[in-house]
Specification:
single chain, 715 residues, 9 strands, globular
Length: 715
């Protein structure tokens, strides 16, 4: 996931600030001192510094915007568009740092700071968009762009993207509509933060965990039991209670939840944990039901204010898909291809389970992971635990980073002198194939209480260049939630965790490889339905022996992963592909359902009924009372993927088609890799489909995806 944090404005970055504006300020976020490569001095920062940095950054950028608007010079690309793109250095630095740490640390003080400054950020961004003087200058430059023959294609792209961004964000509104837009944006921003923090806090809710004993853990591997025992001891210590060595703790955090659902032989406890997880944010202190209705309604109101019939129509204007109709046609096409294979998968799993459970057994959602794993083992003699000894964390880090070395010649050197925001974090210098420093990569691998669930890529600074071509290197971060080592035992990852690592590393490479001049066109600042291509592309290598041989060695014997195990893993990975796709389509259908409403959701609206209706075309299991997706659907309601969740499957079509080129030419073919790297470097400096077709030589098709998933046979 490319995590989309609060920004001052997508197009705002690096303009020089006046000395007198910071003379009295000693906050390192505002005027340093910074570390090597201008990295942030995290150990010198306090929560108050982040808040002060944001508020001072707003003041400084307001002065920069005033300077643009109040100058007497005729509006030009340099004095208006570029000046805008380079404004807000302090603000961007402070907002990115605060947003990253709030998610990665889960500190309640930081959460409160973010909640306090969010209204200020929202007002500031809206003030810029609705600044008539600024809009008039942008419009003048846009209207006269064809007359300036000195403009490069990247310059012209920045002009168009800036103009479109302002236009679709309400700059052209007049009268009372401008103030209405301002109010709606502020309300929406507050609601997004509240929803997100509720989702994070619900994961930590003591009511959403299970204290168990050895007798409750039938089927659980010893390594997982050890992690559950360590979690119990750590939690009891944190709560000031005496440790009880007979207790084990299972929570709804993924590193704890997923293994239990896969291995536990206790169906009743699987059902309990499933319901604890799937009923998050539906009641109590962290209830998101009314908040999500308010978010959907405000988005609809914004869309109508902008002359669109629904939010999806408004949101999709500047994407590869363009329209809600195109998105739904895409989702429908996949639904038609995957529905029958999914039904066959479910029927096969249920029939297999009935051999043990009896003919009356009905497969339920809390049974799927457990019984599908059992069937995989039976069909392919494959057990996920067989893979883990080959994925020791340090070896896997070398292997994941080594993918960039094999493809692009990149080199990673750990730098222990760079200040980090937590002792678990590692910092790496990243060099290209010519020895030039590309950027700094922060890697935050381990779960800790309070940390947001899942995995994501973010940045502390985006790559840019000044007029002389001098590069400001990117500072990129990837965050995961792997289990921490216990005692002398090594950290062994499962295949899902390795795949996640490869995914986020793909986003990181997108940011690190950037070679754009302007911040708003750099790195991962691309269309939502294009950005996931680069992360999902990396996942393809996990089934390739030539790649695995480079690092996947048994942590005890040092032996390479045997071909037989890889073959069984590949077959097992394909097993359940239809189910997985239908599940993802369900998220896409639900997202589009909320954002194609044309009348507001009533306060009394039944979200359970809304979900059931939205998911009916892609239903896998009947809905379970009290279990909902929407209240914890952070991608859509607080993560920047509103009317954009389809982008994961859209990008999956692209990544399968792109990887087919490597399969045709060799998975480490240098010529193919150079062409792919050009897309990584380009960011949003060119149209994404134009970039893709230059790489592939043709339009992408769904064929490679269907072949990879085993839906249609390979020739």
């Amino acid at each position: 996931m490319k995590k989309i944090l609060l920004h001052s404005l997508a197009a705002l970055s690096l303009m020089t600030i006046t000395a007198e504006s910071t003379a009295a300020v000693t906050n390192p976020l505002i005027n340093g001192p910074f570390g090597q490569y201008s990295t942030l001095p995290f150990s010198s920062l306090t929560p108050a510094d982040y808040k002060e940095g944001v508020l001072e950054g707003i003041k400084l950028q307001n002065r920069e915007i005033d300077a643009i608007v109040n100058q007497r010079s005729v509006p030009t690309f340099e004095n208006t568009i570029v000046a805008l793109d380079r404004s807000g250095e302090v603000l961007d630095r402070s907002v990115l740092a605060l947003g990253n740490l709030e998610a990665a640390m889960g500190d309640t003080v930081m959460m409160r700071v973010l909640a306090e400054i969010t209204p200020e950020l929202s007002r500031h961004s809206t003030d810029i968009i609705l600044n008539e003087g600024l809009w008039n200058r942008i419009k003048t430059v846009y209207d006269n762009k064809d007359k300036d023959t000195s403009l490069t294609p990247e310059d012209l792209r920045l002009i168009k993207k800036t103009y479109d961004s302002f236009l679709t964000s309400g700059a052209n509104l007049t009268g009372g509509d401008r103030e209405k837009f301002r109010r709606l944006n502020a309300e929406l921003s507050d609601l997004n933060v509240c929803y997100s923090q509720n989702a994070t806090n619900a994961m930590k809710d003591p009511e959403r965990r299970m204290w168990l004993h050895e007798s409750d853990l039938a089927g659980i591997p010893e390594s997982i039991k050890t992690a559950y025992r360590a979690a119990a001891a750590e939690t009891l210590a944190e709560e000031g209670k005496e440790d009880d060595p007979t207790l084990y703790l299972v929570t709804v955090f993924r590193p704890s939840y997923y293994p239990f659902m896969m291995y536990s032989e206790n169906r009743g406890l699987r059902e309990k944990l499933y319901k604890l997880n799937s009923s998050k944010n539906t009641d109590g202190e962290f209830n998101n039901l009314q908040i999500l209705k308010d978010i959907a309604n405000i988005r609809l109101e914004i869309a109508k204010l902008m002359g669109k019939k629904n939010f999806a129509e408004y949101q999709l204007q500047n994407t590869m898909a363009k329209t809600p109709e195109a998105v739904m046609a895409f989702l429908e096409n996949l639904r038609e291809s995957y529905t029958e294979p999914m039904k066959a998968e479910i029927a096969e799993i249920q029939q297999f389970a009935r051999k043990s459970e009896g003919e009356g057994f009905i497969l339920q959602p809390w049974d799927y992971t457990f019984w599908s794993d059992k069937l995989k083992n039976a069909n392919y003699a494959f057990d996920e635990e067989e893979l883990k000894p080959y994925f020791e964390l340090d070896n896997t880090i070398d292997g994941v980073f080594g993918l960039a070395t094999k493809l692009y010649g990149y080199e990673f050197k750990e730098n222990k002198n760079i200040d980090k925001y937590h002792p678990d974090v590692r910092a790496y210098e990243v060099y290209d194939d010519g020895g030039k420093l590309l950027g700094v990569l922060y890697a935050d691998f381990f779960y800790r209480p309070g940390k947001s669930s899942g995995a994501w890529m973010t940045e502390f600074r985006t790559e840019t260049k000044d007029d002389e071509g001098n590069k400001s290197i990117p500072l990129i971060s990837i965050v995961c939630n792997f289990s921490k080592p216990t005692g002398s035992d090594p950290v062994l990852l499962n295949s899902d965790e390795v795949e996640t690592f490869l995914h986020e590393f793909g986003h990181a490479l997108h940011g690190l490889s950037a070679e754009a001049k302007y911040k708003s066109l750099s790195g991962t600042n691309v269309d939502h339905d294009f950005v996931e291509l680069f992360s999902q592309f990396n996942e393809n290598f996990l089934t390739q022996k030539k790649y695995l041989d480079g690092f996947a060695r048994h942590y005890k014997t040092g032996k390479k992963m045997p071909q037989d195990l890889i073959d069984r893993f590949v077959k097992a990975a394909r097993f359940g592909a239809a189910y997985s796709t239908m599940r993802q389509l369900g998220f896409g259908y639900l997202d589009m359902a909320y954002h194609t409403i044309e009348e507001p959701l009533r306060a009394s609206a039944d979200i359970s009924a809304f979900e059931e209706n939205a998911l009916k075309p892609v239903e896998i299991f009947p809905m379970v009372d009290g279990c909902l997706i929407s209240p914890a659907f952070t991608h859509v309601f607080s993560g920047g993927y509103a009317a954009g969740y389809y982008g994961y499957k859209w990008s999956e079509l692209l990544d399968a088609d792109a990887f087919a080129a490597f399969l045709e030419n060799g998975i480490f073919d240098k010529k193919t890799a150079r062409k792919f790297r050009k897309m990584l470097q380009a960011g949003d400096t060119r149209d994404p489909m134009e970039l893709y077709m230059e790489f592939r030589g043709k339009q992408p098709t769904v064929d490679a995806l269907l072949k990879r998933d085993g839906i249609i046979p390979e020739k």
